[in-house]
């Protein structure tokens, strides 16, 4: 079976990274809060992926094709991201755009991923296994 992208999502502080590390102890990780595009393309795994998106938006980069570009440069990436679309809708326009972008990018990546997990209270559930 060809290894494909895998996505692990959950709310803030729900234990996604710890869950991912137990599932994939061999994985070397990049931090989405600080890694470059080149590092992301070469990575085995990335955590804080939502922060990579935040930085891209703050740098005013075009993120419309981010999911497609990531699938081309690293179609076997293990991605850990916070779900940021729940709760009160932010007043700040940038925060609303950020929240929407994370949701849209993760939705595209989930569609392309072979497995998708959702983690709540440190407990992971496979929600897609293709």
From TrEMBL:
Pfam families: CobU. GO terms for biological process: cobalamin biosynthetic process. Keywords: ATP-binding, Cobalamin biosynthesis, GTP-binding, Kinase, Nucleotide-binding, Transferase. It catalyses: adenosylcob(III)inamide + ATP = adenosylcob(III)inamide phosphate + ADP + H(+); adenosylcob(III)inamide phosphate + GTP + H(+) = adenosylcob(III)inamide-GDP + diphosphate; adenosylcob(III)inamide + GTP = adenosylcob(III)inamide phosphate + GDP + H(+). GO terms for molecular function: adenosylcobinamide kinase activity; ATP binding; cobinamide phosphate guanylyltransferase activity; GTP binding. Its EC number is 2.7.1.156, 2.7.7.62. Pathway: Cofactor biosynthesis; adenosylcobalamin biosynthesis; adenosylcobalamin from cob(II)yrinate a,c-diamide: step 6/7; Cofactor biosynthesis; adenosylcobalamin biosynthesis; adenosylcobalamin from cob(II)yrinate a,c-diamide: step 5/7. Catalyzes ATP-dependent phosphorylation of adenosylcobinamide and addition of GMP to adenosylcobinamide phosphate. Belongs to the CobU/CobP family. This is Adenosylcobinamide kinase. It comes from Blautia hydrogenotrophica (strain DSM 10507 / JCM 14656 / S5a33).
């Amino acid at each position: 079976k060809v290894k494909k992208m895998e996505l692990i999502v959950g709310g803030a502080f729900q234990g996604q990274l710890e869950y991912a590390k137990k599932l994939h102890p061999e994985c070397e990780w990049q931090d989405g809060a600080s890694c470059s595009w080149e590092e992301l393309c070469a990575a085995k795994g990335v955590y804080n992926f939502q922060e990579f998106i935040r930085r891209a938006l703050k740098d005013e980069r075009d993120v419309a094709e981010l999911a497609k570009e990531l699938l081309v440069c690293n179609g076997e990436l293990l991605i850990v991201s916070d779900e940021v679309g729940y709760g009160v809708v932010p007043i700040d326009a940038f925060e609303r755009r950020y929240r929407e972008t994370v949701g849209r990018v993760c939705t595209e990546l989930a569609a392309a991923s072979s497995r998708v997990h959702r983690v709540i209270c440190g407990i992971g559930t496979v929600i897609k296994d293709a």
